[in-house]
UniProtKB/TrEMBL annotation:
GO terms for cellular component: DNA-directed RNA polymerase complex. One of its GO terms (biological process) is DNA-templated transcription. The keyword Transcription applies. It comes from Flaviaesturariibacter aridisoli. This is DNA-directed RNA polymerase subunit omega.
Length: 113
């Protein structure tokens, strides 16, 4: 399991709780901007986890087209199940945002549009 997931798995509860939108708005001045920042971070987390999972599962891949060689691999199934049980990247990103762990800045070009 990645370092990022281990850190957050311990701190996230199994129950999702409502977040105060005013708290999100106060951090950037605009709730939509806050949500956009969270979405971008969630996408970054998702991409890194996907790459990590694919690299782990690549170890089990056979590069032949023979159907006779297809079988269930218990280690592969366990890895897949472990990733399925991990918290959603959007929840991780929201928690990071509310704990001020995400660096963000406004693009100056966006200010003049």
């Amino acid at each position: 399991m990645s370092r990022l997931r281990r850190q957050h798995s311990a701190s996230l509860s199994n129950n999702v709780e409502a977040k105060d939108l005013n708290d999100m708005k106060n951090r950037t001045g605009n709730v939509y901007e806050s949500i956009a920042i969270i979405a971008k971070r969630a996408n970054q987390i998702n991409i890194s986890l996907k790459e990590e999972l694919h690299s782990k599962l690549e170890e089990f891949a056979s590069h032949t087209d023979s159907l006779e060689e297809v079988h269930e691999n218990k280690e592969q199934i366990e890895i897949s199940r472990a990733y399925e049980k991990m918290p959603n990247p959007a929840l991780l990103a929201t928690q990071e945002f509310l704990e001020d762990k995400i660096y963000h800045r406004k693009n100056e070009d966006d200010l003049f549009r």
